[in-house]
Write a structure and sequence with these properties.
This protein is α/β, with parallel strands linked by helices. It has helices at 7-16, 154-162, 201-211, 226-237, 258-264, 300-318, 373-378, and strands at residues 23-27, 40-41, 51-52, 56-59, 69-76, 90-94, 106-109, 113-116, 119-122, 132-133, 144-146, 167-171, 175-181, 185-186, 197-198, 215-222, 243-247, 268-272, 276-277, 283-286, 292-296, 330-334, 345-356, 359-364, 381-385, 397-402. The longest helix is centred in the C-terminal third of the chain and has 19 residues, at 300-318. Residues 177-317 form the MoaB/Mog domain.
């Protein structure tokens, strides 16, 4: 029997086929979760001037000694600076965010003063520079605030706004088409009979793809005939998508037509069957026009695990994010003895049963059937076993892959 391709090699092949997509400009409101095509450069210095960090009085520190009485000559509020100068013996009422007036070099907070008419008594001596935010203290015009390839988070949007950047250059969303195959498949709610299987894969795979920034189109369900599969693949490849994701029909049975249909439609398969459980029948290829094709196994757990391990990194790479060429595993400890593994890297559905030395203790759930979605939904993590891992004892270190939420 031909040796199956290792998971890392398959992932490497996917990532090296990922060419950066083009970019577009979007308003801040539409930029959440998008990946920057160019760095965000500050278009202003922030704060734009020295400003007060507190409500109180702008003073000359040399004058504002304990029990000094200063004359209040005006007010500086946020957006309405004081036009004059703080002269010796005087103070200016100031509020948080307001520009420091000329002549002042400290702020005394109002809790440390007593005010009577135009006179303010200092009850806690001022220190030079106290409670002043310096111009450019956060950033200055021309500073690079966020690099290209960065996926925008909520706080990044506020940062870009504060730097006077109203539109961002982001990589366009990858367009993903989902094509399901199988005579048995019926949509949820459409009256499935006992011999039917309800189409479920595209919901988890589609959600993962959307969360990775893609636009997702459901391209329908194909019956198990060579003609229909070829026709469906042909139409999908001509529809302007960047990534075609097929589900099902990937294995070796008489009705597993996806690989031959893809090949007949000019898709060159760089990956076909890998040393993975669940997910052995994974396919990856590229059409003559450059559309990438990910063939996921039909079993719903296998499809989900393969989407996590391959489709999500591929979509991230297409958007220019730095993607590690191996799954991002975390340290854990075994909560039970395990038998030796075979040649397939195993991603076992597992429960977190405790914590030891700051890492979770995990135990595989008893049923590892790759068709069972309730088992997947109940799992906390995937417990990862390398190919040919020897038997291991409870308490030994192991690795886990977090599930997406
Ligand atoms: N003789 C062998 N049989 C199988 C092998 C093998 O190596 N030799 N591999 C097994 C493995 S591993 C997997 S995984 C499955 C996957 O095979 P396919 O990708 O060809 O999937 P199908 O046969 O089309 O379907 C399998 C199963 O999943 C259901 N399915 C399919 N699509 C969907 C969907 N969109 N939503 C929900 N469920 C779906 C389908 O009804 C079947 O029950 O093959 C093993 N067999
Ligand atoms: O790889 Mo299949 O995904 O074991 O069930």
């Amino acid at each position: 029997m031909k040796a199956l391709m290792p998971v890392e090699e398959a992932l490497q092949r996917l990532l090296s086929a990922a060419e950066l997509l083009g970019s577009e400009s979007v308003a801040l409101e539409a930029a959440d979760g998008r990946v920057l095509a160019a760095p965000v450069i500050a278009r202003r210095t922030t704060p734009g001037a020295d400003v007060s960090a507190m409500d109180g009085y702008a003073v000359r520190a040399g004058d504002a000694t304990l029990d000094a009485v200063l004359r209040v000559t005006g007010e500086s509020a946020a957006g309405r600076p004081f036009a004059g100068t703080v002269t010796p013996g005087s103070a200016v009422r100031i509020f948080t965010g307001a520009v420091m007036p000329e002549g002042a070099d400290a702020v005394v907070i109002q809790e440390d003063t007593k005010r009577e008419g135009d006179a303010v008594t200092v009850t806690e001596a001022a220190t030079i520079g106290r409670h002043i935010r310096r111009a450019g203290g956060d950033f200055a015009t021309g500073d690079t605030l966020l690099p290209a390839g960065h996926r925008l988070r909520a706080r990044d949007l506020a940062l870009a706004a504060s730097a006077d950047v109203a539109e961002l250059a982001v990589i366009r969303r990858p367009r993903v088409g989902l094509l399901s195959t199988g005579d048995e498949l019926v949509r949820p709610g459409a009256g499935a009979a006992a011999h039917n299987v309800i189409l479920s894969n595209i919901y988890s795979v589609g959600a993962l793809a959307r969360r990775a920034g893609a636009e997702v189109a459901d391209l329908g369900i194909l019956p198990d005939t060579m003609a229909a599969t070829q026709e469906g693949v042909h139409a999908a490849l001509a529809s302007g998508i960047d990534v075609l994701v097929t589900t099902g029909g990937a294995s070796v049975g008489d009705h597993d037509l996806v690989a031959p249909a893809l090949t007949a439609q000019g898709v060159e398969l760089a990956v076909h069957k890998i040393a993975l459980r669940p997910g052995k029948p994974l396919m990856f290829g590229r059409s003559s026009a450059g559309t990438l094709v990910v063939g996921l196994p039909g079993n719903p757990v296998s499809a989900h695990v393969c989407a996590l391990l391959f489709l999500v990194p591929l979509l991230r790479a297409l958007q220019g994010e730095a993607v590690a060429p191996k799954p991002a595993l975390k340290a854990a400890r075994l909560g039970v003895d395990l038998k030796a593994n075979d040649h397939r890297m195993d991603f076992m559905r597992a429960a977190i049963v405790g914590e030891e030395d700051g890492v979770p203790v995990v135990r595989p759930v008893p049923v590892q059937d790759s068709s069972m979605l309730r088992v997947l939904a109940r799992a906390d993590v995937l417990l990862v076993r390398p190919p040919n891992a020897p038997a291991a004892l409870a308490g030994e270190p192991c690795q886990i892959l977090p599930l997406e939420d």
